[in-house]
Design goal:
The structure is a single chain. The protein has about 130 residues and is mostly helical. It is built from six helices and no strands. The chain is elongated. It comes from Eleginops maclovinus.
Length: about 130
């Protein structure tokens, strides 16, 4: 039975996309490393908790198939910051040097917004 689990995880690794923009923080690369360490002996690996293994596979398969994205569609493809998907990917890739002058302004605004200490924020007057 562990041979079947191993093959299922291998197929999932093949289907899981790699993000070449991210150097070390890519989920696809991390998944491949974890599968390799969990199944060191390949199909002959003895699994200590088969139920947990199956549950983990099913969860990862749902993420890979965009199950939650289809079940809970977004109205807009932006976040609360107003950053688009492309800008967010660029910021998360670690290649901030590639940002042009316009996007550097956006990065500066976002970093200032989230780096404010509580002392910088004016206190509200108590309501009567």
């Amino acid at each position: 039975m562990s041979a079947t689990r191993y093959r299922r995880f291998l197929k999932l690794c093949e289907e899981w996309p790699r993000d070449e923009l991210k150097k070390a923080g890519d989920l696809g690369t991390f998944l491949r490393q974890r599968v390799a360490s969990a199944f060191r002996e390949g199909e002959n690996t003895q699994i200590s908790d088969p139920e947990k293994c199956d549950q983990m596979y099913e969860s990862l398969a749902r993420i890979n198939e965009n199950y939650y994205r289809q079940r809970f569609p977004r109205v807009k493809d932006t976040s609360f910051t107003g950053v688009t998907v492309e800008e967010c990917k660029l910021l998360l890739s670690g290649n901030v040097q590639q940002l042009d002058e316009e996007k550097k302004g956006l990065w500066k605004k976002l970093s200032e917004r989230f780096s404010k200490s509580p002392e910088d924020v004016p206190e509200k007057a108590p309501e009567k």
